[in-house]
Amino acid sequence: MRMPKWKGKFMIVEAKRLGISIAGKSIVSSVDLHIGDGERVGLIGSSGSGKSMISKAMLGLLPTNATAEGSVMLGDTQVIGADETVLASLRGRYVGAVFQNPASSLNPVLIVGKQVELPLKLHYDLDKADRQKRVIAMLEKVGLDEATANKYPSELSGGQQQRVGIATALITSPRLIIADEPTTALDSITQRQIVDLLVTLVDKAGASMLFITHDFSVLARATTRCYVLDDGQVIESGDTADLLDNPQNAQTKKLVGAARELTLQRKQDCDD
Amino acid sequence: MTEQEMLLIGKGISRVFGKGKNQQRALDDVSVEVCSGECLALIGGSGSGKSTLTRILLGLDQPTSGTVAFEGNPVDGRKSAGYQALRRESSLVFQSPFTSLDPRWMVTRSVAEPLNIQRKRSKTDNLDIAAKVRESLALVGLDPDEFLNRYPIDLSGGQAQRVAIARALVTDPKLIVADEPMSAIDVAARLQILEAFAAIRKSRPETSIIMISHDLGVVQHIADRIVVLHNGKVVESGGTDDVLNRPKAAYTRELVAAASL
Amino acid sequence: MTKSKSSSKFSIVLRLIWRRGEGKFALIVLASWVVVSLVSLVWTPQSLWATDGYHVWAKPSVAHWLGTDGTGADVFSWLMAGARTNLFIAILAVVFAGALGILLMSAMVSRNSALSNVSVVAVDALISIPTVLIALILAVPMGASVAVVIIACGIGYGLNLARIARPQALLAANSDYVGSALSYGASGFSVMLHHILPNAMPTIMVQLSLSAGTAVLAESGLTYLGFGVPSGVPSWGHSLATSVKFINVYPLTVLWPGLIVTIVVVALNVFGDVLRDAIDPVTNPELRRS
């Protein structure tokens, strides 16, 4: 068994003919996906399109009644069919995940400081003082003050909770961040703040990101390139800005049209 | 517009939760009015007090101070004329259709429920409930023959939410209150919800709608007026065009930015 | 028209239970139980009272299919007749438990906070009393009787049912569909009947089926202890109690009632699960298509 190990900071994600079925029913079929080093790539599709299953396959977190075929390479490690010990050493260390609902992805009985510290404890051999220093520094990076470390998740707003989720995902300096609808549960202003925060932090760290959403306006802000998923298949891919300007596929047109319809069209002359 | 033509008026509403040290002021001297046939958007982020305000306007919660009147009748406890009229003349659409439709009820039964409840209470009506149910479903863009006998589990989010809207319509209410009806729905399906509301406005011009949202983008096409709530206070209110294009309050500007690309 | 509709629904449910291996097992066992109980009312291979001092503890033979007991009576006939007593007890205990449980569950999720608080505390307190103790207390004025078993089981399982069904009921009670119904002026009773109870029903069915099995076990236990079925009334507990003292010498006579009780209890436990999956439109797509 080969444990994943990277010299330097290089990590390319390559999915080839990825197929996922649950209880015999095909959810995702023959998906090819490439995330270059330091690239922010989007995966967009309406609910039931299979986008979350792809992220789960990458993390090795598919439900037990699901089967995956094809190949997903994270760096030089094959994830499909990989041993749990290999996956566990990947998760948290090289791959960080930010989930949709921070209220349920954070442990309600653990204070924020302990929550953020956990991946460090699991993957690094640091003494306590050192860990704590890094936790405080990380919280500061996501815009939370030192006092937050001693609070419980229930004492925080939705936006603050998601900031804690981001801090937990990023504290080990992973090479790849998988963000699965990280803003869907938040209100519009907080959505924008969280997307901007993620982009800034990911770029600063030089990590790559897979951003999953059903909303093109969020996608446009978060990613440079994207794949459009419909009914388990990639129906269109390319530069996010180009796709928004000139969608080809009918389903993509629908998604883009919806995003445009729900974006404010303000009169030019009264822009401030 | 005189007070008589106002459908619903909330005046100087404050709501304080908790006692002593843990006191929290959810609403602070908020006044709103809704005219007949208008669509009012109530905008605010989480914790802005918009849900509390809605409950109070519907008579489901009592304000700490302030008054609510429906068609000129005070809404003040379960016995009041305003409260009784609200139960008869108002309908609710909730955020998530999957928790607002009984998973073990067929669409036809869910949509017919308000009529069945009201018929039992008034005992005078002999209207054709089945026809009314079909009419409501058709209005929100769902083919009755296809959807009448389905269960919620077999519906998409957009379809289920339109069933919930059909249920809200079936009593021909004077007021429909929609509490973030699109935030739990896919972006693509949100347009279907918007179209359903647009269809209601067209075919029932006398029906008033209160649309609660945190997103200016989803209300821009449907709302006549916008009231922006922030930290329990009204920070801005006015015609949709004014608020979107000439926002005055700093918070509204933030909202505008968040809804623009 | 409504009749044919409901009968077709019944056949769908039956077909779905039958399709599963464990469902077949449960249906066969439970149907046999009912048939044997009914037959025993009019016919048993030997008279229950045909004792024979010369042929006690006899081995199985053509005349006595499972041999005879310590009085020389036919073991098979007594087990057949025991089936009806146990069926009677199980049905009445479940009906009693169901009624009590649903009533308490409704009180626990009631919108009247005084009623719900009191009932939650009451159920939590009463549930700590073991069923055996309830039977013991009841046996003081009533003596050993079938009624003691039924009432003790009914109270014990009713309390359990209320506590186990409460989370499901609470979920429905706090849901937006109940909120919607209330906003149109629906009464608390109507919401309970049409929304909360149907949504708690899957849990209730499983629990009641388990309770029927436990009632069979409890009958044996209570009868053995002497406050269950009085001597002379045929029941599986009675068959066990009268032979268990001789288990070292004549183990077979203990084996038969023990085996039957075990099979019936397993069948009832399994039945609850398959029945729940079959009658719930949320888990059974075929019911939704009809």
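The CA atoms of residues 12 and 75 of chain A lie 5 Å apart.
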